[in-house]
């Protein structure tokens, strides 16, 4: 009778070992699933963060380029206004300036230079 008990004990140990191996395998499978789910969640969160950073970057980029375009438009407008004012000033003062210049150049009034000393004859 000792022999059958021994076989029963071995059978029980083998069954217990098999159950333990099954539990370990099931735990490994659950762990692998949790790791995959965690990885998927992390990937989703990283994608969300990346999209958020890109959206913020685009907003800031548009603000900067908008300011540059606005500044460029202001500079162009100021330059155009200055050119128009200079052209108007030229148009208004051209005749009087030319007349004054011609009067100065063409009016000849001979004078003796103040440093001139005539030589005395001996």
Automatic annotation (TrEMBL):
Function summary: Subunit of the V1 complex of vacuolar(H+)-ATPase (V-ATPase), a multisubunit enzyme composed of a peripheral complex (V1) that hydrolyzes ATP and a membrane integral complex (V0) that translocates protons. V-ATPase is responsible for acidifying and maintaining the pH of intracellular compartments and in some cell types, is targeted to the plasma membrane, where it is responsible for acidifying the extracellular environment.
Subcellular location field: Endomembrane system
A Pfam entry, by short name: V-ATPase_G
GO biological process terms, semicolon-separated: synaptic vesicle lumen acidification
GO cellular component assignments: synaptic vesicle membrane; vacuolar proton-transporting V-type ATPase, V1 domain
Secretion signal, residue range per the UniProt entry: none
Name of this protein: V-type proton ATPase subunit G
UniProt subunit comment: V-ATPase is a heteromultimeric enzyme made up of two complexes: the ATP-hydrolytic V1 complex and the proton translocation V0 complex.
Family, as annotated: Belongs to the V-ATPase G subunit family.
Organism this protein belongs to: Rodentolepis nana (Dwarf tapeworm)
Coiled coil regions in record: none
Keyword terms, alphabetized: Hydrogen ion transport, Ion transport, Membrane, Transport
Main location (coarse class): membrane
GO molecular function: ATP hydrolysis activity; proton-transporting ATPase activity, rotational mechanism
